[in-house]
Amino acid sequence: MEDVTGLKKSAKALEESFFARENEKLLDKLREQAAREEKRKLLADALNIEDATILDHLVELDVSPEAIVAFGLVPLVEVAWADGEIQAKERAAIMRAAEERGVTPGSVNHQLLENWLRQQPEPKLLEVWRHYTKRLLQALDPAERDVMQQRALGNARTVAEAAGGFLGLGSISAAEKAVLEDLEATFD
Question: Does some domain include residue 100?
């Protein structure tokens, strides 16, 4: 049958347009899913956890991997500077923890950390960390808060113990203990 009125041609154009639009929606959905998975992987690396529920929740909250890296490193730096200087063993413990969080040599995060280890950060850094931490904790359930606290403060305690205390017996100095207690109070 001949397409005298052009109806078949118009119908074909309509179908092609519809399916092109639907395909574009599907492609956008796939791209979004891939971006979510990449962010989830980066967060998993930064936190060194595999808990899918926590990772999915952090992705939903649009928490950046960079913020999570800073979230984990600021307490380490604060504890290391508690006595006014960074000792070699503290520095090594911080660099190990940073590497576990995916901070690679030459990266911006690594350079920033190096700066923090050379010169004590301004008190504003800790203030911003506290503000961010409190906001983040408000958005998490109790189990997620516990994991985040363990991640932030567990390595900070390791750094505090790294200097070895008196005769290398792994004690924590009074100044480091005070900083740890102060950091812990942020999670209350």
Answer: yes
Domain total for the chain?
2
Domain range spanning residue 97? 64-185
Own/partner long-range contacts of 140-147 (Cβ < 8 Å, ≥24 apart): 140/54, 140/57, 144/53, 144/54, 144/57, 145/187, 147/47, 147/49, 147/51, 147/54
Structure tokens at 175: 């100044």
Rounded to the nearest 10°, the torsion over CA 154, 71, 183, 60 is -100
Name the more confident of 51 and 163: 51
Task: Specify the pLDDT at position 33.
Answer: 87
> How do residues 85-118 score in pLDDT, each as one tens digit?
998 888 998 998 888 877 888 888 888 889 999 9
Residues 161, 69, single domain; the answer is yes
**Residues 174 and 98 both lie in one domain:** yes
Q: What is the pTM of this model?
A: 0.74
| DSSP-based helix, strand, coil % in the chain, nearest 5 | 75, 0, 25
